[in-house]
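Hey, sorry to bother you again with one of my protein questions. I've been staring at a protein lately and its backbone has me curious. I owe you a coffee for this, so here goes:
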Amino acid sequence: MDLPNPKSDELYFLPLGGSGEIGMNFNMYGSDGQWLIVDCGVTFGDSSYGSIDISMPDIISIEKYKDKISGLLLTHAHEDHIGAVHYLWPYLKCPVYATDFAAEILRRKLSEVGLQDVVDIKIVNISSKYRIGVFNIEMISMTHSILEPSSLLIETSAGKVFHTGDWKIDNKPQMGEGLDNKRLKKLSKQNVLAMVCDSTNIFLNGNSGSEEDVILPITKIIKESKNKVLVSTFASNIVRLRTITKIGLSLGRKVALVGQSMCRMVDVAKQCGYLHDLPAFISEKDIKSVASDKLLVICTGSQGEERGALNRIANGNHKDISINKGDKVVFSSRVIPGNEVAISLMQNKLSELGADIIESNEENLIHVSGHPAKEELSEMYSWVRPNTLIAVHGEARHINAHVKHAKEQQISNALAGKNGFLIKLSPGDPRYVGELESGRLVIDGNDLISRNSDVFKIRNKMMYNGTVFIVLILDKFFHLLKIPSVMIEGLIEVTEEEDPIKIIKDFLINEIKIYSKTKNFDKQYITDTLTNSIKRFIKKEYSKRPVVKVEIVVN
């Protein structure tokens, strides 16, 4: 279906990303002839196609309606909410609204693609009210694992929606404005039509914990260490980085930052008025001059990223840092689904080098999540008292479990957000009313293309089944002038006992004899027919389905 042109008494919700996966958040609200986009993020990796590093929402269903888009509003600066803006903005060309911190991160991304002076970025403050087209917005301060997270109260002539963004209830967040629970509790009296809510931690009972909770466990680990300590955490978690730094300094250690993304985040935070209570970090090149028992390294790479700082250290490829027996490597982070194997491989390498690996657990809480557990979700329901709960931000299992939990908490009308599924919030009870085209775009070199592109299908087939390239030189009567040229890659191992190249050549010679007996065939027909014959032959001989390319040269 097409994107509707909503009337003044209509309010729609349309997720195009983040409702069916962790990451890649892209949500839209429509009312009175206009649409508002909330967040525009990426997700990392793709289990189906190993060559893909970054995926983002396919916005083909809304491109031709860009004149109806009043703006793009960013709830915070995590990559899964902001990382696709510099790729997708040229197809949207609308104003972008963001807080200081998110705006500065976005500017740096835009400068990478030459759009820093093109995109209209409007700075908005948390706890402020403003208008984007027909949408009245109130930005409410939340707590999360990054600076300046916010939720949105979106008011239209057709009703109000509370969009939570990413959040948790942390009453001692260590930095920032914190959770504005006084304002949130007042929402119960404002007849909120729907709450569109984060589902990430629905399987976690209780609450997610406070940033204050990690202070004592991390302090104990560093204090008891007689060698150097490496702490790996998410680069965007400036609050955690500040906490770890202050602990290290209080224990008489020099603190170094390792990893470009972490250094960039610190630079942005300082530019926006944060972290000025910390002294300068020591540089990487000075690390070797610091005694092992006086050194604390905070680094990126907790997810086993190939080019991450910790992986380079584990592989012995970092010029300034090496692992010695008795060093501690602390993972103040969680395992993002899909990264389990990479993290395990990296940890094994670190262990082989003599490092003690320390991860977060109930007895040793060195990481807390930035997303709400069940108890926090229930508390938010009681504050807001929405008429309808729409679960987003999660895989299908998270979203469906969130819907079930909401119904158990007396929210009778709860719907699962699904990418591409249009929900009409008013008038009438919220309900699904249609489906728009959705999917994923991926970065392939310098190109932005659909994940369903034939490029990836062929590449995937080559990876699992190999390739066969054939060049035939024929005369105008389709007689062979030279022995066929055959090249195979990844099909089958060539041995003294069996040479598949010779076998394929012999097959080709016999096949070509068929075509040389008639004058009615043309070059393209022979190319297509021969390609299909080769595929059938290889499938029969080797049980493989390689990519087969036949080139015929007629002299």
The chain has a mean pLDDT of 92. The longest strand covers residues 467-474. The two ends are 53 Å apart (CA to CA).
